[in-house]
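User: Is it possible to get a 3D structure for a protein together with its bound compound? The compound here is erythose-4-phosphate. I've pasted both below.
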Amino acid sequence: MKFFVDTADVKEIRELNDLGLLDGVTTNPSLILKSGRDIVEVTKEICSIVEGPVSAEVTATEYSEMMKEAAALAKIADNICIKLPLTLDGLKACKALTSDGHHTNVTLCFSANQALLAAKAGATFVSPFIGRLDDIAFDGMDLIREIRHIFDNYGYETEILAASIRTVNHVKEAALIGADVVTAPPATLKALVKHPLTDKGLEMFLADWAKTGQKIG
Ligand code: E4P
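Assistant: Yes, that's possible. Here is the predicted structure of the complex:
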């Protein structure tokens, strides 16, 4: 499973990348707002840190405007992945951009039929939003399950990018179902390592080691 981090915070991206955990980055207009930085400047910096795809989202809603924004975003770096909303114009832009050799991420996916359309448009990634479905008392994981089933039925190569991740259990469930990628906030990715028995076990080993009076190396 690939791990993407869902942030435009360069410090966090650098830290996770240094750990060797990062396969890519996703951003969106809200995350750019949170960063307080210019979209081109911050996206360029992110692309220089991470080798994998960096999703940068268009904000136009009409096809030809989307294509203009996509051209501007694509100029930022070779690893830019153009993020497009799951609308008819977004799908049309996805098809055109994919045919031109760009990587695409169709975002704001909340149904299996929407994911099917993204796959038919040739999207590199489709982003079903788990947390936002859970928020309205749906089960986001059911959507991941349905999309996995449909894509396997037809051999679609579009990767399922489980997004709007809120908990470490979301990551585990998405992995069990077979999502190709998970994009999660930095804190959630870092929390995957935590287990109280690991902390307790390490504490005991270190205490016993100190009693031996030995040193390694
Ligand atoms: C995905 O690409 C989105 O940026 C993101 O996962 C949205 O998550 P949220 O619902 O926590 O805003």
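The domain at 1-210 is CATH 3.20.20.70 (TIM Barrel). The mean pLDDT is 98.
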